[in-house]
């Protein structure tokens, strides 16, 4: 994992303003209501390479051996041994691997 990678398994706030209008005020008092904040686990498998300044958002699984190009925003699952780039990150290539000899570039 390179520098500046951000991984978040929640949205921090609701996209409905009526449900987030008091967030910062409450935070100042040491409270945080998470009931309306979407969240989902992030899974990053072995042999993954994540470039610099990549963001990985909630609920994403990056499968084994995948590579994420610098500055990408990963919003959906990335399949194994694939190269994904951009915002939102899209697979642009399949990567050859000894673990998956049937996969070709
Ligand atoms: C992921 C990476 C290694 C791929 O390199 P590559 O295989 O040489 O890829 P290419 O340069 O051939 O790019 C292929 C296409 O993807 C695009 N692309 C590559 N990286 C991109 C990125 N991070 N974001 C958006 N598009 C990208 C290229 O513009 C090119 O598009 P085109 O076919 O329309 O011209 C490289 O893009 C990268 O991100 N390098 C930085 C790695 C890093 O973070 N290092 C820090 C130390 S760990």
Brief descriptors of the model:
single chain; 105 residues; mainly beta; UDP N-Acetylglucosamine Acyltransferase, domain 1; four-stranded mixed β-sheet; three-stranded parallel β-sheet; 9 strands; elongated; binds coenzyme A
What does this structure look like?
- The protein has about 100 residues and is mostly beta strands.
- It has a domain at about 5-10 and about 40-95: UDP N-Acetylglucosamine Acyltransferase, domain 1.
- It is built from 2 helices and 9 strands; from the N terminus they run βααββββββββ.
- The strands form 3 sheets. A 4-stranded mixed beta sheet has the order 3-6-8-9, with no helix packed on it. It has a 3-stranded parallel beta sheet with strand order 1-4-7, with no helix packed on it.
- It is elongated.
- The two termini are about 25 Å apart.
- The model has no long low-confidence stretch (mean pLDDT about 95).
- The structure holds coenzyme A (COA).
Give the helix tally.
2
Instruction: Please report the first level of CATH classification, the CATH class of the domain at 6-12 and 39-94.
Output: Mainly Beta
Q: Kindly state the mean pLDDT as a whole number? A: 93
Structural class category = mainly beta
- What distance lies between the first and last C-alpha atoms, to the nearest angstrom? 23 Å
Form type: elongated
Q: What name goes with the CATH superfamily of the domain at 6-12 and 39-94?
A: Hexapeptide repeat proteins
- Write down the secondary-structure element order: EHHEEEEEEEE
| Cofactors, ions and other ligands in the entry | coenzyme A
């Amino acid at each position: 994992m390179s520098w500046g990678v951000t991984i978040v398994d929640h949205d921090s706030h609701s996209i409905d303003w009526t449900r987030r209008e008091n967030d910062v005020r409450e935070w100042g008092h040491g409270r945080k209501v998470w009931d309306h904040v979407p969240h989902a686990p992030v899974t990053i498998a072995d042999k993954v390479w994540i470039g610099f300044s990549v963001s990985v958002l909630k609920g994403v699984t990056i499968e084994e051996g995948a590579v994420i190009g610098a500055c990408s925003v990963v919003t959906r699952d990335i399949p194994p041994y694939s190269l994904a780039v951009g915002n939102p990150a899209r697979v642009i290539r399949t990567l050859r691997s000894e673990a998956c000899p049937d996969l070709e570039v």
